[in-house]
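[Discussion] Sanity-checking designs against the backbone

I'm trying to build intuition for which residues belong where. Below is a structure token string of 334 positions. I'd appreciate it if someone posts a full sequence so I can compare it with mine line by line.
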């Protein structure tokens, strides 16, 4: 049995990058008979980036509804909210005490903020950096190690976090005995980094996302906004250097992609290419858009599913945490 686990931070509206980089492949994989899967809403991670309570609460509902609308089978998979499993926070502390500060110094998320401070000429390189951001990878390691995940389907941006989770778990194992399985990142090369409207990685932080549940008209409008170059209809275009093509590849069949590549070389007009891409995405999404809207209108159903998932997650988290505490010497007195 292989254990698959992944999470999404609840800081915004789910977008196409989350869908193709994490949710779709994860649900697909969870259907295999020999897979045990854990999918969760990383709301404790959300606090690191977002101090807007309403936004976190709304995002949590939206991301939960997204997994459910897309057909996640919550009887087969364990689907929960990170904060509903307090054992994860407790494990985070155990791991924090075992993690070298030097390892965290190398974290991309932290380094990116330091670099930005320097670029902006700030005297304090740590300006705006909380301990949450600095130790972000430790909470993520706890998420993963708590359930002994073998595989973690993620986008490319999370690979370093997976390496850190392995380092942290290996260090614990080395000192206290073999408790943790070493997880590995599973990245689908076709969709490793889905670009956003401006061609950079689609990300809430860049404000360039295409939300997953836009109504049809708005979805079309967003797709028409994807940045292209100024080549005119009839001029050949490069299919290997095109954000549009990268997005299309994540939704279209191999055959459709081959046809579109040819159309690029034949000089398809950007407007025509965008229309085809819109139609392909819309066909895939319209079937589930209604499920999503129904769920958003019924928050009690979402809550019920999350509570069921948290109870299942804690069934294994509680005894495992007790085992880990025992290993480090936090034991009953008698
Ligand atoms: P987050 O919330 O930024 O993104 C959730 C997932 O979506 C993927 N993703 C993308 N994939 C392809 N192209 C894109 N443009 C794109 N944007 C986002 C991300 O790679 C990720 O897989 N730290 C994590 C959340 C987390 C987690 C975990 C993940 C917390 N604990 C444990 C796995 C296991 C994060 O911030 O993802």
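Best answer:
Here's mine. Compare freely.
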């Amino acid at each position: 049995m292989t254990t698959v686990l992944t999470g999404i931070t609840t800081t915004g509206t789910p977008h196409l990058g989350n869908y193709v980089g994490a949710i779709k492949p994860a649900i697909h994989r969870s259907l295999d008979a020999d897979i045990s899967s854990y999918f969760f809403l990383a709301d404790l991670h959300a606090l690191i980036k977002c101090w807007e309570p309403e936004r976190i609460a709304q995002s949590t509902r939206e991301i939960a509804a997204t997994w459910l609308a897309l057909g996640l089978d919550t009887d087969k998979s364990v689907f929960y909210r990170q904060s509903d499993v307090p054992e994860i926070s407790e494990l985070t502390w155990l791991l924090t005490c075992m993690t070298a500060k030097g390892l965290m110094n190398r974290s991309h998320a932290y380094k990116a903020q330091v670099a930005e401070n320097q670029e902006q000429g700030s005297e304090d390189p740590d300006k705006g950096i909380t301990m949450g951001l600095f130790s972000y990878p430790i909470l993520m390691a706890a998420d993963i190690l708590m359930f002994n995940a073998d595989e973690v389907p993620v986008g490319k941006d999370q690979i370093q976090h997976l390496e850190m989770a392995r380092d942290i778990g290996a260090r614990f194992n080395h000192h206290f005995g073999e408790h943790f399985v070493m997880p590995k990142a599973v990245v689908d090369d076709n969709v490793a980094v889905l670009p956003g409207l401006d061609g950079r990685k689609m990300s809430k932080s860049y404000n360039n996302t295409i939300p997953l549940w836009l109504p049809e008209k708005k979805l079309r409008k967003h797709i028409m906004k994807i940045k292209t170059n100024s080549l005119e209809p009839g001029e050949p275009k490069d299919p290997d250097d095109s954000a549009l093509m990268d997005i299309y590849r994540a939704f279209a069949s191999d055959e459709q992609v081959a046809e579109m590549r040819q159309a690029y070389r034949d000089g398809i007009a950007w407007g025509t290419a965008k229309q085809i891409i819109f139609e392909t995405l819309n066909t895939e999404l319209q079937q589930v858009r209604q499920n999503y809207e129904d769920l958003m209108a019924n928050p009690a159903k979402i809550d019920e599913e999350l509570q069921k998932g948290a109870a299942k997650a804690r069934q294994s988290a509680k005894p495992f945490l007790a085992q880990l505490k025992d290993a480090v010497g936090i034991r009953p007195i008698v």
